[in-house]
Amino acid sequence: MKTSFIVGLVIFWSATLVLGVAGLVSYENQKLVKNLQSAGNGSTTPNVLAQDSVVQEAVQSGATTWNQELVASHNSLDDCWLTINGKIYNVTEYVPFHPGGTQTILNTCGKEATEAFRTKGGEGDDHSKQAYALLDNYFLADVGAPLPSLTEAPLEVVQNTETIQPSSGTPTKTEPEKKPTVTPTKPATVTPTPQSTGLTASTVAKHNTTADCWIIVNKKVYNVTQYIPFHPGGTNTIRPWCGKESTDAFSTKGGAGGNHSSSAWKQLENYYVGTLGASVQAVVPTTPVTPPSVPVTPAPAQTGSVALTASTVSAHSTTNDCWIIVNNSVYNITEYIPFHPGGTNTIRPWCGKESTNAFTTRGGNGRHSSGAWSQLENYRIGSLGGSTSVVTPVVTTPPSRNDDDDDDDDD
Amino acid sequence: MNMKKSHIGLGAVILLCLVPVIPWLSMKPLDVRFGSMTAWFTSIGQLSALIGLAMFSVSLILIARLRPLEPFFGGLDRIFKAHRHLGVLGFLLMLIHPLALAVRFIPLSVSTSALFLLPSEDFAKNLGIFSLLLMMGLIGATLFAHWRYQILLKTHRILGIAFMLGVMHAFLIPSDISGNPLLATYSIGLASLGLMAYFYRTVFSKAIPKYHFVVKDVRALDPTVTEVTLDPLGDRLVFQPGQFVFVSFKDRMLSDEVHPFSISSAPHDRELRLTIKALGDWTTEVPCLEVGASATIEGPFGGFTGARAQRESEVWVAGGIGITPFLSRARAYTRTGLTRAIDLYYTANTTQEMLFLHELMDIAKENPHFRVIPHASKEMGLLTATRIHAQSGSLASKDVFVCGPPMMMQSIIRQCKDLGVHASQIHAEEFSML
After folding, report:
1. Percentage of chain A with pLDDT > 70?
2. Cis geometry, peptide bond prior to residue B300 (ω within 30 degrees of 0)
3. Rounded distance, CA A304 to CA A312, Å?
């Protein structure tokens, strides 16, 4: 009996300790990411769900604003939205984790749940601060915030997601992050010549080169042309799938290994063109958009011999003009920022700065892959202290990221 | 028949602890309960708490020294044994409870998972955490601390308060369980019984019926063993030879602690005799007890009696002070006579330490069925089951009664089992610490 008591206690405390340390480590990591991000623009980590499709679905239901009616249709455990304090949350992913049981949440799915949340279903006290913080991760929109009208092309939905929320008057934590990741795709997807054609497999099949690459994942069509050069897995792994149904290939990394990360899935949404089979207005060939118009490194504007010093680098400290120093080399990574799997905000604070440590440790979160290191080399403009011929301050040249990508691809 | 009856108690205990699983299972389909990793851990966490709570409740009921329960377990010593096992088992389940519930959050976030184990603003959860920590300390102290018996007893009693906090936690925390009226009623009912038993023992202990005696004689039989003779003030105590009582004295020298002792006198004696060996602080002071001091007795308890014997003959094995229950039985036979064959193996370091050898020899002279075989282990080595087997013949048709130091009892029991003696034939006085 004494033995079982001791064994029980030892197991309990070791498990608690392990969990505690693991929790602390992951908490510190989250905090770091948050700090880096808030240093950038004051936003916190949001959980951006497949928001584009959510918005699209909402629009198609005929609603013009985010309202309770919309929430009401998501009233099952598999699809559970609820309203708390005038905010709509999609808590579907959280349901299985609810300490109070799934049944208690089911009662509020599709409903206005402020009171139920505040009183734990009328049976107890308010939820803890921790619970409220957790809730924020599932934020969708404010009640009453306008939805894009049905007449707008669905393509523009991508763009709309960022305009919806700010206009609600109560800016929320979730929206600002969307902006930076969305912008780079716009030049490709937003300049549509709307034609009323259905998105079919054969339409997609026409876009089957790396210079014009559409893929189908989960019945949705994505124009990934702009992304190809930034694919950590290389260009060649994407090439065979251009113009094809790629769901399996994407979710298994071409059969080579596990699923893509959730941030990869999120990034994919940035290239959303439309849903397969939907008779919607689709983008017509993007081919003319893709060709490079402004090459990166040899800037056409003014070139000159500029000394690369910490102070010259520090002048390039915005995401629209971002130089960093890693291991005494200077890199102009402006073009890459929107494609950073770790998000724009994690890079932002380092623009214009010595970033060796931040890059090596991934902002304290681990380390970059060798692929990332070799990608970095594509953006090298010279050595610190050297007097290399470089592009003069980018101030004059507005960011033209998308057009430059293909050059990098050739490296 | 009796054998079966003495197993009813244990069966009922297991049933009481497992019954709540049935409504729990019927609340939701199994594929929801065990559909995913998260569901698995949630279920394990809930079940461990549900069963653990029932175990603690039953454990508290068992420790209340309820005499009506004795026949169903075969004596208070066995009830107490069940209490200890249920307590530790329930505690182990309670350790699983928070861990399983925390681990289920890992797929969501490791920090959420870790945070779950820490105190927060959630009062109900904090109650649970505090209760568990308190239990850890108190059970640990009971098992390992070398404190005075009486202090240990008081420390152990605080466990009732830890249990109370745990019960409050269970019914304040929102869960599938507190939401189910059947489960809630059952668990509250059982826990209330446990708490009632606890209060009966602690707060209302004065109301428990007791016998009153006065100390008539205090005789040191040797430097460590004292015989206390008590004269009844009111009713005589009716008991079976082999049973024990809880006694406390009101005396200038001795504190009024409550201690259990086997009765060494025969039921037909007017006086009650307790033979006490100095094993702890309090028992060392017993020789200082004054004649005329009043004694309060609760009991009798225990099933280490002739009623347990089911076969044609018996073997008694007594180690040192472990002779007392046998002494009572042998003394009783001088009045009732003896029809079954009984061999008493009386073992101590030397024959001088066998304080009652002469008296027992005298009884044996009068009674042809009763043999006394002294075994001085200093000269002859430790008594073995093989030796008993050689002397008394096959143990297969005998009941073996063992009372003595715990190590010696365990050794004899193991040896008997090795010789093929069935567990139901072996009877040990199991109150090592009450």
Report:
1. 67
2. yes
3. 13
pLDDT digits (tens, 9 = 90+) for B281-306: 888 989 999 999 999 999 899 888 88
pLDDT tens sequence across B326-377: 999 999 998 888 888 999 999 999 999 999 999 999 999 988 899 999 999 9
Closest CA to A149 of A209, A65, A32, A235: A65
Using CB atoms, pick whichever of B92, B107, B117 lies closest to residue A8: B92
Highest mean pLDDT among A110-119, A369-378, B59-68: B59-68
Between CA B21 and CA B177 the distance in angstroms is: 11
Residue A277 has what pLDDT? 73
- Copy the structure tokens of residue A152: 């707008």
The SS3 of residue A268 is helix
Among the listed residues A360, A363, A331, A324, the one whose alpha carbon sits nearest the alpha carbon of residue A346: A363
Mean pLDDT value of segment A138-142: 83
Dist. CA A49–CA B51, nearest whole Å: 40
- pLDDT < 50 stretches in chain B: 1-2, 433-434
Residue among B46, B83, B115, B118 with most chain A CBs within 10 A, to mutate: B115
Distances (CA, A) of B283 to B148, B249, B280, B327, B409: 11, 12, 5, 20, 22
**Interchain contact B102–A (C-beta under 8 A):** yes
Whole-angstrom distance, CA of residue A181 vs CA of residue A178: 6
Q: Do A27 and B114 touch (CB under 8 A)?
A: yes
Cis omega (within 30 of 0) on the bond before B267? no
For CA atoms A127, A129, A134, A137, give the dihedral sign. positive
Can you read off the two tokens belonging to residue B234?
């009111």
Residue B408 one-letter amino acid: M
Determine, for residues B110 and A124 on separate chains, whether the beta-carbon distance falls below 8 Å: no
Contact A296, A335 (CB under 8 A): yes
Contact predicate B6/B72, CB 8 Å: yes
Helix (H) or strand (E) holding A328: none
In whole angstroms, how far apart are CA B282 and each of A146, A387, B80, B261, B277?
82, 93, 22, 13, 10
The CA distance from B61 to the nearest CA of chain A, in Å, is: 20
Give me the sign of the Cα torsion angle A220, A221, A227, A233: positive
CB nearest B117 (choices: A16, A94, A130): A16
- Chain A residue numbers touching B82 (CB-CB < 8 A): none
Three-class SS state of B317: strand
Are the beta carbons of A249 and A255 closer than 8 angstroms? yes
**Bridge partner residues of A322 (DSSP):** A317
The phi and psi torsions of B249 (rounded to 5 degrees) equal -115, 150
Residue A347 to residue B274: CA distance in whole angstroms:
84
